[in-house]
Amino acid sequence: MARNLARQLALWSARVFAAYSDRAEPLYFALSAERPVYQENAFLSLRRIFSNANVYSIHITTENRFLKETIHSKLQTQFSSLLQENCVLIQLVSFLPNQNRSVIPGFIVQDFQRNEETEITLKDMAKSNECLLCSYKKSEGADLWQQSIWCATEGAEVEGSTHYIIPSAKPAAHVSVLNVDSVVFHCFEDAYAALQECKECIPEAKEILHLADQSPRHMQRSNFPVIVIEGLDATGKTTLTKSLQETLKGTLLRSPPPQLSHWRDQFDSQPAVIRRAFYTLGNYITAAAIARESEKAPVIVDRYWPSTTAYAIATQVVGEKDNLPSLYSKVYQWPTDLLKPDLVVVLMVSPEERIRRLQERGQVKTQEEKELEENNLFREKPGLEVTWRNRK
């Protein structure tokens, strides 16, 4: 932990911070070792966060992706029960511009009653988790604020450096895009490593890893065609896959495969990185079945890597559709070690018709379905599921 904190502190002044309040666009700010020249219009937006309250921020610094998301959820729950009603919680991330996997999640806490117990509570929370705690104080003179870092390593309190807060321009790449690479896996080893991070906390992960170990790798399809059918629930996948199976006298496979499907509910409730690793390893296990069955007949597959990737991107990226990775981003590249199909068909129906079908079936929406309903960015850019074909 101490080494990790030392690395974070060394790069801290190079970071940009994005605070998500009730604004459509985050408020961005950065740090400066030198006292900035105050310009009222430029610093006006910072008043919304730093004026009229004692302000703190807490940052989750662990490099373990499973722990990072678990601690974030845990802290959010603790804030609601431990902090006073006069405190306001704002989502906060810090990042290195244009550097993938550099995002550190956290929170801003505004204490409008300036209660001394708030800082004590926050220090206790930082001690029990891999976190940095920052306090913000107004500098003398104009509306300038300074950030001071506090952390606890190996039982000792450490005072970090102090920086001035300055406004920062909107980055070229939206901050949510920088973490997409951590939930879209482009090889077996990356997905496998993600589940390794949580195997001591989630016993089922060991079972998934064991099945993945037993599955043949780098399989190639035979001469019979492989067709993948993609789409959200209630778009007609079941009807079409069965029809194709009968017409082509083929084999119907699904991803995740039957040996994993009974664990879906368990992994759908996990942090995004673990959820995506589960489905990605399911694709690799399915690939072995595709290779085996395509020696005997055509193969039809109900969902595969495109939907795994599309769900990951759609639930990770927030805001406007322009925030999505560009069409030429490497995030859409097909994994070099995963068997490719001959054809991918994406089924789409209107949102109204899809909801009607779900209600008619009495089907319970999955957590991801609920997230996608809240994030219409996914529906506004349906080409997301087929973009990978441009990057073969």
What tags apply to this protein structure?
single chain; alpha+beta; four-stranded parallel β-sheet; 12 strands; 21% strand; elongated; disordered C terminus
Largest sheet: 8 strands, antiparallel, barrel
Strand content: 15-25%
Number of helices: 15
Main sheet: strand order: 1-2-8-7-6-3-5-4
State mean pLDDT (0 to 100 scale). Answer: 85
N-to-C SSE string, H for helix and E for strand? HEEHHEHEEHEEEHHEHEHHHEHEHHH
Low-pLDDT runs of 5+ residues are 382-392
How many extended strands? 12
Structural class: alpha+beta
How far apart lie the N and C ends? 40 Å
Rg calc = 24 Å
Global morphology: elongated
Residue share in helices?
Answer: 25-40%
Word description of this protein:
The structure is a single chain. With 392 residues, this protein is α+β, with helices and mostly antiparallel strands. Helices cover 38% and strands 21% of the residues. The strands form 2 sheets. The chain has an 8-stranded antiparallel β-barrel with strand order 1-2-8-7-6-3-5-4. Helix 6 (188-196) crosses helix 11 (272-293) and helix 11 (272-293) packs antiparallel against helix 12. The chain is elongated. Mean pLDDT is 85; it is low at 382-392.
